[in-house]
Amino acid sequence: MGIPSSLPSHPHLHHRSVSNQTVPSCRAVPGGKGWPSADLWSALNKTIDGRLLQPAPPGAVCHPSQPTYSAAECTAVQGNWTDEFFHSDNPVSVEWNNWTNDTCLPDPTLSCSGEGYPVYVVNATTPQHVQAAVNFARSNNVRLIVKNSGHDYVGRSSAPYALSIWVHYMKNTTLHPTSFSPTNCKNVTITGAALAAGAGIQMLDAYALTHTINHTVIGGNGRTVALGGFITGAGHSILAPQYGLATDSVLEMEIVSPAGEILTLNECQNTDLFWAMRGGGGSTFGVLTSVTMKLIPSPPIMGMTFWIGTGADNTQAFDMLAWVVSQFPDLADAGISGYPIVFNTVKNFIDGSNTMIKGIIGKLILPNTNNASMLVDRMQNIFDHVNATWPAMFGHYNTTYYPDFQAWYAENYDPSPTGHENLMSSRLLDRPALTSDLSALKLALAKFSAAGQCTVYIVSGPGVHNAQPRGGSNSVLPVWRRTYVHATASIAYMATSNVTIEDTMNHDAKELTAFFSATMRDLAPNTGAYMNEASKYETDWQTTFWGDNYARLLAIKRKVDPTDVFWCTPCVGSERWAQEDDGSLCRV
């Protein structure tokens, strides 16, 4: 996209003024006392080489009342709205509409304003750009947020009345083919390949780059997932059960702190922040500008696609499903991982008929082998038990060999569409939750999949349990070290011009999310959830997302960011502020 050399002479959208913002108990808002003058914004723009943007929401091109209206561009935007790359490449758009409060969708029958979006954006390509933005926000009492790719299930990448630091174009990379020595760590050389990458690098590019030296990064399955938010939140992967979480492979980080300092974090310096930034969450302790990660030799992959189904009226369907899911810890311990999905009363996608079915479908992998027998034997044992125990089940599996991880990923990346309203709930499940009470598991799976499906991803196992992060530990939720399954349920819905219906849908989606969260909390009360893919409205989120690490994380947050330059929710240390109904951010 083109970067204007100077600020536009007028804002693309009129932002609502909020009165009585005369004391710093709230962040400054446009039109209110304390909002920086045009001269101050222009001075910031000069400091960052003309990279300050004042973008209109992308959907504004569909609204005749807006300055950027264009019928031709509207058609293009509507055609791209479900494309993750469209949102990733836009300075203010995010992948799920509800996180901008549906304030300007590409539908002319709906209203449009900029009130769900940041006012200004720093298109940062250097740490110095980030530094200038942080210093400006801190000095001028302006709400500060960070957007990377916008692939964010808990809505941290957008906010009203804010200055946004957009790190999407921080894509510098360096491959270290044989070893890496952390900065200022005397006599420390970490053998093996490593990748140093800007925070804006996305999975598609990270996999392609590391493939050039026959290695791979531990990464996510979505193509637009960027390293910044992924790493700081822990980062689950289909390779994690064998090799650890993504953040377990972090060797060094560069960040801009709330005080505006450019810091290097590793096992020898800034060790508290190094610990906190590896699992403590993004947009909280500073802005990650680059990260160095240990790579693994790209393993050959034996892949499998499988499904087991039955008629939706089969009362034994969830007996079968609970037993199959109870086998997952043993699969993980045997080196198998994957992305199974339970489906609950959906149209028959197997034969295309109008019948309704229940069951499970998924992709599994076994790395470092070209021999299908171990995977086949394990799955055949499951199929044999199902056939012998429950009548009227049907299923299928097939295997494919891939010479390396990149070949597997090219065929099996997550193609999920974006551009709709989406709320998620999730829970991490350990062996007791999955095996000790199949009646409880049966009930939980039936409730958790009530919206049509739920995931039961095998993304933890021995590699996560036995991980040895640099510096001895990191701040990821300790429950990961005994987890096997990351289970999620999502509610997708569409915006409407009827305010009453819209409010009802939002309310119902939140209620259903709470129901899903409670269902899995009842099944696994002593675990928690993966904070990057969870409910924004999780109760007791401090314990759910960070467990016993929260007290130390909070102490670090208070020390490095005493005035809460960085604020998001549910994020470490966010308790002192809340977003008001009018969008302003105020102390509580």
TrEMBL record:
> Does the UniProt entry include the keyword Phosphoprotein?
no
Name the segments for region: Disordered: 1-31
Q: Where is the composition biased (Low complexity)?
A: 1-10
Domain (FAD-binding PCMH-type) ranges: 114-298
Q: Which Pfam families match?
A: BBE (PF08031), FAD_binding_4 (PF01565)
Supply the alphabetized keyword list. Oxidoreductase
InterPro entries noted in UniProt = BBE (IPR012951), FAD-bd_PCMH (IPR016166), FAD-bd_PCMH-like_sf (IPR036318), FAD-bd_PCMH_sub2 (IPR016169), FAD-linked_Oxidoreductases_BP (IPR050432), Oxid_FAD_bind_N (IPR006094)
Its family? Answer: Belongs to the oxygen-dependent FAD-linked oxidoreductase family.
> Which PANTHER family has this protein been placed in?
FAD BINDING DOMAIN PROTEIN (AFU_ORTHOLOGUE AFUA_6G12070)-RELATED, GULONOLACTONE OXIDASE
Q: What is this protein called?
A: FAD-binding PCMH-type domain-containing protein
State the species of origin.
Answer: Sporothrix bragantina
